[in-house]
Amino acid sequence: MFLEGRLRVKQLRGIVTRPTHGGHGFQTLVVGDQFRPLSGTTSHGSFQLEEPLKLYESAPCQAAEGGSGRRNYELSVAWEPAWDPYSASIFFREGCALLRLNGKGKVSVVAGARNRSGGDDGVGTVASFESVRGIVSDGAGVLYVADECRIRKVQLPASWKAGASSRGSKSEVIVSTILDTQRTLCGLAFDSCNGKTSLVYSSKNAVYRVPLTSAGAGVPALLAGQGQVSKVGQPNDHEEQTPFTEIWGMVMDGEGSLFLADVLYDRGGPCSYLRKLTPDGAVTTISKLSCVCFPASILPNGCLALCAVKSVGGSDEDLILVQLGLKPPAYMLPQAAPPRPAASGTLPGDLGALLDRQPDGTSDHTVEVGGRAFHVHRGILAARSEYFRRQFENEFSDSHTARSTLNEADPDAFGLVLRHLYTGSVEVPPAKAQAVAELASRLLLEKLRDQAVAAVLADARAETVVDGMLWADAQGFGGLLASLMAWYLDNQADVVQRAGDSFSRLEANPALMRELLVSCAMNAGKAAAAAAAAASGARRG
After folding, report:
1. Residue 210, SS3?
2. Pairing outcome for strands 403-405 and 365-369
3. SS3 at position 451
4. Where does the BTB domain lie (predicted)?
């Protein structure tokens, strides 16, 4: 073991790593009163904190003339951040609420309330939490939360699955209690390394494993602690041969081993013993640290990240990076790069292949979108997009830099925009049609905007048409709004039966509601007149 790095961080509360665009890289975020990217976590060398992410409220606000229609999210302090591959989102605690941060930088409360504690199960904000000490994901649509003495299950909606269409679908989580441990929980991990799924949780001085079953949680079994003596990694430190005293959190590596901080208070001040717990229950002490700390994450480069909250001889809040050569969790393991496409002999095909090869050393500009980096060629973007041409001609402030940021945009949608710019065509999936239409309109790409708008209309369904009208009106897409309204009138009975609570959202747009009611009345009048005319003709006949 050796110290890889140490950084002072304000309000340090956790570390989380998420895949970058395309799944071929990772972004590590240092979490507290901000989400700050930490560079250098995929290699060995220097680490550096970058500018914090911009966060936005999930609910759209009334935009001023030329505004973006989004409000900045004012984060208090985020705790227990966890990456969920199922929804491609980060979940964290703020106050007593469970929140979600998606890839577009939007933050939303998904369960509980920031200023209301409790232990109620239920749907969405009806549920409540007491003191969340850990959040883990099974990667298949379920989060598990260590809440005071209980383990809570948070079932995510199917519409949140990455790539799924969410319009018109139920979008609230369901919180239920699966185990009351009768002990205050200090850490939680999800384990699927041995082919069977289980949760591992810790109390103050013991670690337990509980199998997961179709009915919920099985019977917990003691894994280590409560009088068990740890083996010592360094023979001279005989005084370390003690049971767990006070566990402060734990993380699991890709082989199923746990790394815990065991805190003691002695004459020299507080200290933490970093201990390793293998799947068979063997405990080994790795090192002694002169601070109170807790393990926060295992990084892609095999480092263990520790959050020091009460240092001796250092800052009160330090990020400590220790190189242990650990195997990261499965989602951080390098994926085989796809084979490079051969030249097609056509200009669109060759430019598409060039885009797929990035970064290959030929790009001369990087566009950051939602925390993801896209390596691009200025000449191509300037030739194909008036927006980027203006930017690179110094009409925008960042034209002479090798890096620019496109705020408030969906990174997946920007990937589709790039495909359009490089090749002249792109297939817009229904799940991304709205995001592509918004971004194409912003980037002055009329052809792509019209294509995406057409994809929204083609995907109109009884469950989604009301939300689609609200969105089209907010974006100023008058033609699409008229088409969706006509679709609504033609399928009104089906919409009324299947649209669910989307009707209630019309209350936020009285003008649209009034226009829709007038159209319905006129449509009913025309139908009545047509029926009367038909009846009159039948009588004359």
Report:
1. strand
2. parallel
3. helix
4. 363-430
Final residue before a domain boundary, out of 408, 436, 459: 459
Residues 407 and 442 in one domain: yes
- If asked whether residues 356 and 454 sit together in one domain, one would say yes
Taking alpha carbons only, the member of 154, 139, 246, 262 closest to residue 190 is: 139
pLDDT digits (tens, 9 = 90+) for 125-168: 999 999 999 999 998 899 999 999 999 999 999 888 876 555 54
Give percent above pLDDT 70 in the chain.
Answer: 80
Q: Which of 8-12, 37-41, 73-77, 232-236 has the highest mean pLDDT?
A: 73-77
Name the 3-class secondary structure at 140.
Answer: coil
Do 455 and 510 reside in the same domain of the chain? no
Per-chain mean pLDDT for the chain: 81
468 and 454 part of one domain = no
pLDDT at res. 401: 60
Is 273 inside a domain boundary?
no
- 454 and 360 fall within a common domain: yes
* Element at 208 (helix H, strand E): strand 206-213
Within this chain, do residues 370 and 422 fall inside the same structural domain, yes or no?
Answer: yes
Is the pTM above the cut of 0.70?
A: no
3-state secondary structure of 338: coil
- Looking at residue 385, which CATH number applies to its domain? 3.30.710.10
Is there a domain that residue 487 lies in? Answer: yes
- Residue 120 is predicted with a pLDDT of 94
Q: For residue 175, what is the DSSP state?
A: E
Average pLDDT over residues 505-525: 69
Half-sphere exposure for 190 (CA within 13 Å, toward CB) = 22
User: Which residues on adjacent β-strands are paired with residue 27?
Assistant: 18
> Domain range for residue 540?
463-541
- In a 10 Å sphere around its CB, with 0-12 CB exposed, 13-18 middle and 19+ buried, how is residue 227 labelled? exposed
Q: Residue 200's closest CA among 174, 173, 225, 235?
A: 225
- Asked if 286 contacts 275 with a C-beta cutoff of 8 angstroms, the reply is yes
Q: How far lies 239's CA from each of 252, 267, 280, in Å?
A: 26, 14, 24
> Which residue spans within 26-158 are E strands per DSSP?
26-31, 35-39, 48-49, 56-57, 79-84, 89-94, 97-101, 106-112, 122-123, 132-137, 142-147, 150-155
Q: Are residues 472 and 455 in the same domain?
A: no
Which among 437, 459, 481 is the end of a domain? 459
Tell me the C-alpha distance between 325 and 486, whole Å. Answer: 61
